[in-house]
Amino acid sequence: MQTINLLLAGFQSAFELAAFITVVVGLLVGVIAGALPGISFVNAMAMALPFTYAMGATQAMLFLGGIYVGGVFGGSISAIMINVPGTPASLPSTWDGYAMTRKGQVKRALTIAVTASATGGLVSALMLTFLSAPFASFAMRFSQPEFFAATVLGLVSVIAIAKDKPIITLISLLIGMAIGTVGVDPLYGQARFSFGIPEVESGIRFVVVMIGLFAIGEVVDLVASNRDLRPKKTDGKPERVRLRDILAVKGAILRGTGIGCMIGVIPGAGATPGAVIAYGVEKQINPRGAEFGTGVEAGLAAPEAAKNATTGAAMVPLLTLGIPGSAATAIMLAAMMLQGVNPGPLLFIMDPSMVYTIFAAMIIANVLMIGAGFGVAQMFSTLMRTPPAILAAFIVVLSLIGAYGVRNNIFDVYVCLVFGVLGWAMKRVGFPSAPLVLGVILGPLAERYFLTAVANSRQDYSVFFTRPISATILFIAFVFVLWSLWPTLKSRIGRQPA
């Protein structure tokens, strides 16, 4: 009862004019920043951090929280409409979302994406409100072995994404992991695969790789094939999206939401593993799993729900333990500390008004995201009516600016262009590029967690199997691999002569 009263008081504070405008402005900034390729919402939060100096602690958290909620969804707009993920977590949305756009179902795809994202975010915000303490105590049991196991689960989920090309997909994943090792060793500080080039020693950022493979590669393919990036128009009257269309994918939305909430509460996991795992699980469970990648609604709904479900879940360890659950919440932690606020269990006792105002604002932001998402999507629809040559030039310029802005380094622009040509070549020969990107993203995380866990256990490699949580997650990953490969193995066994 006390929680309900505090939440109602939080809603009252959040609906005050200044607080409400702060949430709305932050939400719009996040959606736009997430939708623009190369301009991620995390960068937008980092750039917004200095502006929070002039705000109060609660207002600063409302502003950054709005950017966080809007930005996680915003990346899906460009992913669905032009096959360019605005954020790494939006990568799975390209697989079925853009396929729906090419069929002339862009409105249906955006409606499903917004609904799934809002549902996942709203459920995670409610979880943040009512289940913070239990989830925080569970997250306290996670250490480096558990983080490694969770990352491995994300990596093996790529196998489920592979349709009939598990070997090629595995090769693409391993290439991506190899690219992720370029730079300085995370444990010993030694340069690897830099070949004496100083710029390479700082590593190859996954954002630059992603922009090159998808944005630049898409434009090169457009120019080479004289293809129109604009979505096809449906014959007759515009297709209406009805409630039954949303209810048809309610199972995928609920499963994605549950996975996102579980992954998001793990410190350091973030939205990308949640979206990838949700897509892989849904591909195995859904009756139309074999059709995933051709424009199946459930293949879009599951990762959309999952990635937004990580937003509220990632704030659980932040507010209750003072541990950021993602890069975005790390910026929010910095904002709180700049305001002289120390997150942790005492915060719920010393300043419950601030805590529950944040809870209420997260709920409000996820509801308002429906309107904000459609508004920004309409802006992109207007953009896509421009001639393909102008649209391609716009994407290239924006992508190169985004690549340069990652570290303000011209070397990243060159890397982006190289991967753009590589992405076009991979697309032409049918070599999957998505596993490569996921390998670049998750490979370094797995390496860092593995090396740290082994070093802390004094070279005892059994630590991953003697700890119950990490052993359970690794067992699930092993079962997931067998489950994914079983149809292929079964067909090959059936073809063998008696």
UniProtKB/TrEMBL annotation:
Transmembrane regions: 17-40, 60-82, 109-133, 145-162, 167-184, 204-224, 316-341, 353-376, 388-404, 433-451, 463-486
Organism superkingdom: Bacteria
InterPro entries from the UniProt entry: DUF112_TM
Keyword Kinase in record: no
UniProt keyword Thylakoid, yes or no: no
Domain DUF112 residue range list: 21-438
Alphabetical UniProt keywords: Membrane, Transmembrane, Transmembrane helix
Protein's UniProt name: DUF112 domain-containing protein
